[in-house]
Design brief:
- There is one protein chain.
- This protein has a nine-stranded mixed beta sheet, with helices on both faces.
- The relative contact order is 0.09.
- The chain is built from 17 helices and 26 strands.
- The chain is α/β, with parallel strands linked by helices and about 550 residues long.
- Helices cover about 30% and strands about 25% of the residues.
Amino acid sequence: MELSNRTLGQWLEHWAGTTPDREYIVYSDRNLRFTWQQFNRRVDDMARGLMAIGVEKGTHVGIWATNVPDWLTFLYAGAKIGAILVTVNTGYKQSELEFLVKDADIHTLCITEGVFDGSYVDMVYAMAPELRESQRGFMHGGRFPKLKNVVYIGQEKYRGMYNTSELLLLGRNIDGRLLEEAKKRVDCHDVVNMQYTSGTTGFPKGVMLTHYNIANNGYLTGEHMAFTAEDKLCVCVPLFHCFGVVLATMNVLTHGCTQVMVERFDPLLVLASVHRERCTALYGVPTMFIAELNHPMFGMFDLTSLRTGIMAGSLCPVELMKQVCEKMYLQITSVYGLTESSPGMTQTRIDDPFEVRCETVGREYEHTEVAIIDPETGEHLPDGMQGEVCCRGYNVMKGYYNRPEATLEVIDRNGFLHSGDLGIRDAGGNYRITGRIKDMIIRGGENIYPREIEEYLYRLEGIKDIQVAAVPSAKYGEEVGAFIILHEGAALTEETVRDFCRGKIARHKIPKYVFFVDAFPMTGSGKIQKFKLKELSLELLAARGTVPE
């Protein structure tokens, strides 16, 4: 499995020339379909449109949208001319948007109307009120001097903003030879995508990823699942996150297959898309698979076309993995990594034994060196000993944007990227993630790792999902708190949960506090924010009139 020096644009043009009539993108719910050739033409048209409004090599283009059809058009159009696509979390609110636009030096911001409980258009106007009075492309006098353009992805017209049709029309004024010259100036080691870390701790930072980083990571990910051009991957994870734009989209790009897109996750739409398009692969974070398996219409869909997929994004319960394999016909794999590692660092392989795929995150990617390092001494630890999971290789980010000191904090002098996660490598070379260094609960000097308790309690009938996190304690510093989502109709009590643990796990690991909740606090990409669980515990205890002991 050799690494490729192709840029994203070169990969796209390769398939447009090799298999022009094969379907590349499908939206099953609206029967919208693009072949590789059709999509490549639209990308070239959009690239000329971006050039017409001043986008060039190194320009930062932000995209704030769900998985709409033109999301990928903007990615590849920018990639062909050397621009850098900055992905914006769809769950961001006003202050988060303004932080990112300023921190990332956004030149052109591409948006849709909005999702959830906020209008992106309204938030952009609130951020840059001068937009309503400025000639398009000539914003001035505001708090964001580097922001020159706002593009609305769609046909609607808003004051001060271009829309998609207008941008494509402007592109006709750009000579095709200028586009070809721009393509020649792009190198595979140029930054093409900047993603902001999820912000599970502290302020988000812009992770700079190159063509070489993400195209090769996507390629190797697909090879581990035996992908070919005949596969159809249902993409229901958000494109603004590495899971979507790399593990999914870059896998498809480098294997010439088809991606069946879901604009915004809905378990029914996912099941229907797999059924109608005969998808062979499906990705998701654990909460997505839980929603699909528990949907009341689950049994109505034929999922027998499925053969493989990825469950990642957060630690995956073993029992859930088993259910997905059995009920959805998936030889599911796990990918472990982080945005800073493009993101794949380790992955189980499709032909690994069932136990390896369900109970580990597999072995390291080719051309990647993974090590378990003592976080205190920096010593490389042998198999069976717990330490911090670190890696170096082609997949390590170029750095954090405008944050050289923060970059040096996570990439050591030997080139190893430090994940902040705890793990163990077994004798077979497979890795197990045992928790995060900062997620570790320290109760009266005893180190407690939430993953261990979560895996144990997941066996208790009635529990749909569970997260274990620290609850502040005046006596011990921290106590164990279990936050539980129940299956519909299930009835458990706090004491039932504790009784299930007594005599089975060490006394200090038994949850002092048990909270039954409807949902977990999550980032827009589906990662559970453990630090917010600690805050939630205090709110729930206060509602009970209880003070942490």
